[in-house]
Design goal:
165 residues, 2 domains, 9 helices, elongated
Amino acid sequence: MEDHLLNALSGMTGAPTPLIRAIQFYADGAGDTLREPSDELCRHISAGSNDPVRKLLHTHLGRWDWEADTVPWTQGTEANTLERRARIYQLLEIDDTLRKALDENIPPFQGAMPVIINDPRQIRDWYTLDFRKRHNFYWTKVREFLETTRGIKEDAINSINAASD
């Protein structure tokens, strides 16, 4: 399966094309019989992140996910969106079972989750002098490292300390 998938995906340099048909083409050329290529792909996809077939699919799906929305085959779908992935699946002509396996195991990269930052003016008096005295183990070690190993001047270290308050 791995060789047939690699050959099929290697032929898709411009855009996704019907995947099962391409795999079947290369299997037939090698004299192999693939009974249910879609089911076999699902087994590989679910086998774990180190499965070679899954790695190939992950690499190619990632490239197509990141393609600029100006490329004609994307039909203007934004990169790394569920709409883009649906467009890729449409072009690959894969069945719902394979789509589900890919969605669960190789979802499109949609960026880091947003970081919520509270307004520091609303959080008052939690980082008091008393708190800093009781919880200074790491800062003491960092300060010592900056002074002795890095040779950073005291004023610069105090500036870092003030900025981190």
